[in-house]
Prior knowledge:
The chain has two domains: 42-169, Tetratricopeptide repeat domain (Serine Threonine Protein Phosphatase 5, Tetratricopeptide repeat), CATH 1.25.40; 186-272, no CATH class. The protein contains twelve helices and two strands; from the N terminus they run ααααααααααααββ. The chain has helices at residues 2-27, 37-40, 46-51, 57-71, 85-96, 101-114, 118-131, 136-149, 153-163, 172-183, 187-200, 208-227, and strands at residues 247-249, 254-256. Strand 1 (247-249) and strand 2 (254-256) form a beta hairpin. The longest helix is centred in the N-terminal third of the chain and has 26 residues, at 2-27.
Amino acid sequence: MKNKFKTFLFFSALSLSFLGQSWLTHNLAKPQIIVSKQQSAFNFDAHFLKFFNLGNKRLISSLLWVKTIIESDIEHYKGDPLNSWMYLRFKTIFSIDPWFLRGYRFAAQYLSIIKDDLEGASEIYKQGLSEYPNDYPLNLNAGFHYIYELGKIEEGIHYFEKIMTYPQAPSILTSIVARLKSNLGDLETAFALILSKFQDMPDESPLKQIYQDRLYAIRAEIDLKCLNEQNNTRECNKLDFAKRPYIYETRWGKYRAQQEWTPFRLKTRDQR
């Protein structure tokens, strides 16, 4: 009888423990444990894969590429430069297969725009352009990366100028380069670039007046700077782009243009 009672108590206690565990599971909030991909990602040794791939470089790099894209995240990287897991993974892939053109195009943009890993993106652009220096998408995207994301205008112009004459380059690219030249103070080059586009336009083009206003602004800035410069010994142009004379304001002791104009500039990331 005692053994049966003990057995009954055992199973009763066991049942109550299961019921209690079930109640706790459904009614108590569980602490969330979140491990970021940056902490959990595993990267393969690039040197090992590079020299011990048994002639399967393209296969290994392709498998790594697919794995990386599947695991990719959108969390902005804020750690040490050149240490984001995606940059390190891309670096491994390109060390195995340095001629992976589509990979360069995608990886650099993803790091720059999605991950906000600007240093990593810069390195991928540099490596990609060392292998494909004349590739249009790489140069175009590298230009935007350096100008808009890093604020490095001179480096960005270098990439834009390489592709300005490419058949697929939009006409606005010349205008962008001209604005950037103005940002750097090279107004004469900016004027020459816009003038060449203006002269190539048919008279009936709706853009004709827009480009004319741009030329007026650049010319006015050049001329007024010259005219209003103290102790200036240079010969200054006293007619604006419309062949009208600049007006001398006796009250202020300075010249001004006959129509309103704004400096011909391009806003970069820090100015937006």
